[in-house]
Amino acid sequence: MSYIAEWNIRHNGKKIAIGEPIPKDMDKKEIDRLLELKAIKDPEAEAKAIKEAAAKKAKEEAAG
After folding, report:
1. pLDDT in 10s for each residue of the chain, 64 residues
2. What is the phi-psi region of residue 4: left when phi exceeds 0, alpha when psi lies from -120 to 50, beta otherwise?
3. Which residue from 37, 31, 33 is spatially nearest to 3, judged by alpha carbons?
4. Cα separation of 7 and 34, whole Å?
5. How many CB atoms lie within 10 A of CB 60?
6. In whole angstroms, what is the distance from residue 4 CA to residue 32 CA?
């Protein structure tokens, strides 16, 4: 799973700019903390949520 930086982040002395991928060597605890702060995002989860919301809206329109 790849995460993308939403903020400028410094990890182990390396700068990670907005839009850059998060290194795979980052601890799970650090990733969870950054996700909670919304400093990083998971594009796969975001795409899945958008797809589910669109399907729900289409279903509601078809029923209504």
Report:
1. 689 999 999 988 899 999 999 988 889 999 999 999 999 999 888 889 999 999 999 998 888 6
2. beta
3. 31
4. 10
5. 9
6. 13
